[in-house]
Automatic annotation (TrEMBL):
Transmembrane segments: 15-32, 44-62, 68-90, 132-157, 164-182, 188-221
InterPro entries the UniProt entry points to: Brnchd-chn_aa_trnsp_permease
Record's keyword terms, sorted: Cell membrane, Membrane, Transmembrane, Transmembrane helix, Transport
Compartments (UniProt record): Cell membrane
Lineage per the UniProt record: Bacteria, Pseudomonadati, Pseudomonadota, Alphaproteobacteria, Rhodobacterales
Family of the protein in this entry: Belongs to the AzlC family.
One Pfam family linked to the record: AzlC
Membrane protein topology class: Multi-pass membrane protein
Name of this protein: Branched-subunit amino acid permease
């Protein structure tokens, strides 16, 4: 596979996510304007952060009059998943040039990571240059759509009728991304524990229960993996 072929394959593979990204990005534009941000502020946040979950979290906390430090802290905690994404991509694209890796880090979104890492694992012999081209193919479809429909939501959002709710896009987007990645028992345990812990700590003010739930889920997943390794070592002849 050439780099050009890999680029366009990534572009096509991420195409189904546009069904979710369009309402998701429009929803952010609408919510940001309702929260008091003007169009320039909305677009600046969207372009600089490119992380819908963190952006929604920060806006919600600011609307609740939480301190800016708390809003930034929780948004950072929500976005720490990108660090885990980066670690998962290191074996595949870690040998790319620093400037290329920096651009990949800036452009990283959940959808592109989910598609790219699964393709890399299914095709372990792909050269690094081809993997990089595939990744950028994924991103070149998602990011422009995110920017464009955030702007559309910011411009026309206040004119949308209240009955036209876009809230469905957020949970559907994450379900579509996460479900294919739950390939092992530790993954399933971590996902289940994170959901239960998030509900259990929902009473904590300013969404501080989210990082707590994330920490508990990571420990649960790691302990499950250690347990499976120990059990496999015991039964090994």
């Amino acid at each position: 596979m050439t780099r050009a072929e890999a680029f366009w394959r990534g572009y096509r593979d991420c195409a189904p996510f546009i069904i979710i990204v369009v309402p998701y990005s429009m929803l952010f534009g609408v919510v940001a304007r309702d929260a008091g941000l003007d169009i320039l502020q909305t677009m600046s946040m969207s372009v600089l952060v490119i992380a819908g979950a963190s952006q929604f979290t920060a806006l919600a906390l600011l609307q609740e009059n939480a301190p800016v430090f708390i809003a930034l802290l929780i948004a950072l905690a929500v976005n720490l998943r990108m660090a885990m994404y980066s670690a998962a991509l290191v074996p595949h694209v870690g040998h790319a040039r620093l400037g290329v890796r920096a651009l990949m880090a800036y452009l990283m979104v959940d959808q592109a990571f989910a598609v790219a890492v699964r393709t890399y694992e299914d095709n372990p012999t792909m050269p690094t240059a081809v993997k990089v081209a595939y990744y950028f193919g994924c991103m070149m479809l998602i990011c422009p759509v995110w920017y464009a429909f955030t702007l559309i939501g910011a411009v026309v959002g206040r004119g949308l009728p209240a009955s036209l709710s876009l809230d469905f896009a957020v949970p559907v987007c994450f379900i579509a991304m996460l479900a294919p990645l739950l390939r092992s028992l530790p993954h399933v345990v971590a996902a289940l524990v994170s959901a239960l812990a998030a509900i259990a700590f929902a009473w904590v003010p300013w969404s501080l229960g989210l990082p707590v739930a994330a920490g508990i889920a990571m420990v649960a997943g790691a302990q499950t993996e250690l347990y499976l390794r120990r059990r496999a070592a015991r039964v090994r002849p």
